[in-house]
Design goal:
This protein folds into three domains: 147 residues, TolB, N-terminal domain (Rossmann fold), CATH 3.40.50.10070; 229 residues, Alpha-Beta Complex (paralog of FGE (formylglycine-generating enzyme)), CATH 3.90.1580; 237 residues, paralog of FGE (formylglycine-generating enzyme). A hairpin with a 5-residue loop joins strand 6 and strand 7. By secondary structure, it is of the alpha+beta class. The chain contains 14 helices and 27 strands. Strands 1, 2, 3, 4, 5, 6 and 7 form a seven-stranded mixed sheet that branches.
Length: 688
Amino acid sequence: MPKRLAGSPLMAITAVAWVLMASHAVPAAEEQKPAVAVLDFKAGNTAAGDAVALSGFVRRALVKTGVFKVTAEDQMRQKLLSEAAFQQSGCTDSTCAVKLGRFLNVRKIIVGEYTVLEGMRFLSAMIVDVESGQIERSAEVKGFQIGNADEAARQVAAELTGTIAPAASASMTPVAPALSGKVSASTAVSGIKLQEITGRDGAPMVLIPAGDFNMGSDVISNEQPIHFIRLDAYYIDKYEVTFRQYDAFCDATGRTKPSDNSWGRGDRPVINVTWDDAKEYCEWAGKRLPTEAEWEQTCRAGTEDKPYCFGDDVGLLSSYTWYSGNSGGKAHRVGEKTPNAFGIHDMHGNVWEWCADWYHAESYAVISQNNPQGPSLGRSRILRGGSWGDEGDKLRSTYRFNANPRSGNARIGCRCAVAFSALNSTTTSTLGQKINVISSPPASGTVLQEITGRDGASMVLIPAGDFNMGSDVISNEQPIHLVHLDAYYIDKYEVTFRQYDAFCDATGRTKPSDNSWGRGDRPVINVTWSDAKEYCEWAGKRLPTEAEWERACRAGTNTAYFFGNDTGLLGTYAWFSGGIGKTGYGAPIRVLGKFDNKTHPVGEKSPNVFGLYDMHGNVWEWCADWYDEGDYAISPRDNPGGRTLGKYRVLRGGSWDDNGDDLRSAFRSKEIPENRNTRIGFRCAKTP
């Protein structure tokens, strides 16, 4: 995951000598404009690739102002590469910047820094006159969010060129970036089904994959500012904790059972519990209370800028919730109303739910971006969701309430959560059941909605969302960068000989060799990129992009493999060479049995959390993208599709003949698209 470390805003501006610029045609009038070069900005407590991207945004914004003649990328790159003196990690003062400007034969040079401080972003830049060495103008935008990066760059460019006056504070009001949850309310309710497990208390829990979302709203001051949050994967109770479950806890621990207000116990949500009661119940069940951020992400279920999980039509409240308008003045049995897109019930209404965090009205202004836990001290604890006795406004996904942690009443209950990592670090989970990372997901093993393609292949829906693509292990996997993908389907298994042979029979193509290993349900091999593409198109699908492939493989993880970092488990999840390979996590591969140097029928190994098989090993899989070693530095955030031209196509996943390092989720390989061999196959994807 990208390193987002706390640090100071810009103190001294420096710039690296590598430059990222885009070529532009130069009209006649350009010749009279001052020539300017924009050097890659320094990264302050953030990934270098992010700073490179911001310098590119500024460059494009400068071009649009029409004030300067901006030097083209290819000219600058070639010139810098031709002179060893400028192949350095960076300039540390204006003298160095002037030397670079003279070498590049420009009148002005722009240097800057992109810094991240406690989840907020700062962009600074200055123009240095090459002849005099003087700083002509400087600009700084403070406190913007990643979704506003292009706007921040435009503001910097405008101030540097004098096309607008600098703002008094040079700050920007954070606006929600369009990152996670680009699933409309109507789409979200269409059948996403996430992995479920059962806790020690008998409660079903739903897996919420790692991802990002925009927390808060602009409705009430304590919900402001809207801010970008990243959460690791976690499980959360599908229903509010019931009296049946809480009474069992009381029986086991000798606690006094809370009053049910004469409404009944059983499957009604437990009420009259304090924050401590709720916390101790969750701990007894091997869980914990959800953080406020986890609660809101769960409630939203992928919706953006909507007050409720189902959208903004208050007329639908009665379908999803028990509240003052339909409850008859009491709590009702859990699960009687329609769930949200994650399959979770009563997130709006029935009872308020305790969260782990202390409450502070202004905590959103200083909250950590990654897995926030709230203030370290306080007087009251967070309550979320509204209750049977509240009006619709208090049921909004973003509404924040609080109470003394020692108080409990007929409107307050709870639900529990547990970190995904806590259940996958050992073979016996804290819930007292074997979720050992070796077995298939519980129940049917189907994690997300499935359809059947024209070719008879099962396809799994991967919901819209965000993930961190790449790693810091190998240069072509760097930088780690945030990617947003719209929803897509992907084949549950690699395409088999049985399926590909049917395609050949239907189209009169020559069938590829199976190397005398057998056909049927073994993955097809000896296919070129064009063979794979044409099969997918025949089946009404397409090849997955490299980003789609990696997200499908990772299945919400940020580890070397979708099952973690323990290479000793590879034999459970993958057909591979069994050889010793040095991974980026420093662990050698431990051989787990005899491997016979050939492909095997698909689906024989354990799947990932999304229910996908053979994402590690068996055969390499063609992706749609052209391969470029450095394209991660300039890849677009939304639905990247790779370069438009190239020599090689991307291969992902490793094969039966590769060691464990090549099977990592982030590992990138390439091949000439006309080539074929016994290690290469594919799977298809489809846009809903």
